[in-house]
Specification:
The protein has 6 helices and no strands. It is mainly α. It has a single domain, classed as Four Helix Bundle (Hemerythrin (Met), subunit A). The longest helix has 23 residues. The protein is globular.
Length: about 130
Amino acid sequence: MSVRDLVRSYASLRDAVGQSAGPGGRLLRFYSVECGLKAAYLGKRGTSARGTESLPQELRSHDLRRLAKALNLGQTYLDGLSACRRRQSQRGPVDHHELHQAWRYGAALDENDEKSAVSALDKLSDWCREEHRK
């Protein structure tokens, strides 16, 4: 995917969030931010034309915290990117980089933790919106 594709995907998914409630909306929000951060990273490195294959191996994942750190976004953007506890479960918490799977497969997560995660994604999305002017 080229940077142009990533930016277009960021904006498209971000705009679709308003039409999707619940886990589907959270999933779209997550993927939107992932595309926006990857596009920003590639653009800042001057590798816009090459696309995602130009990402360092450690950034070819769903780890938004790692992407935000690579972009030097600061603690304000990292604070909410933490694990979400599961509701009534013996299983461990869901790390922030695995939230897309939890939302895709319908895991029951702690409501307050989810709200915090969504708030962090919204902050990152606002940053991406400014960065890409979209």
